[in-house]
Amino acid sequence: MIALLLFLFISHAGFANGFKLDSLSTKQVWLASQVLPGSGQVINRQYWKVPFFYAGMGSMLYLGLQANDNYHKTINQYDPLFYGSEEKPIFEERWTNYRVQRNIFYANAALFYIASVADALIVNSKGSHSPTTATILSAILPGLGQVYNQKLWKVPVVWGGIASLFYIVDFNQRGYKKFGTAYQQFP
Prior knowledge:
Layout: H1 2-16, H2 26-35, H3 39-43, H4 50-77, H5 88-124, H6 131-140, H7 144-148, H8 154-185
């Protein structure tokens, strides 16, 4: 609420001095979008997009909270004194499903938030190339900056590098575990 009031006060004070929202730099649009989701769309005069982002974030948060409530109810419902050991896997499966649902809904809410920031930056550039926008988009999602730069051939290179990094880390971790097991067996 404080951020909204601050934004409105600064905007109102700026309009008195001839300040226009169109004159904001990419960094200012990015900061405004981070502080108040949807403000980038207002700055870019694309008011019709704001309800979609808020509906997406709100619905995903609501569904995530519902799944979280179900998760905690299921955990609290299980009583080892009342239920036998054969029923424990049923409860574990239930609360695991609710936990996974909760995490997916929260991740989708975050994706709507990130999409609102990315949309504000892409639309704000108005056809001109902005290195700042490309950098911020790459930080949000690796490869998105290359899409913005229209260098689509670089996207598989970026994701191939990320996949290679994960493979190397996993390969080294498996080797480390094998070495640890062998070291414990043959001291």
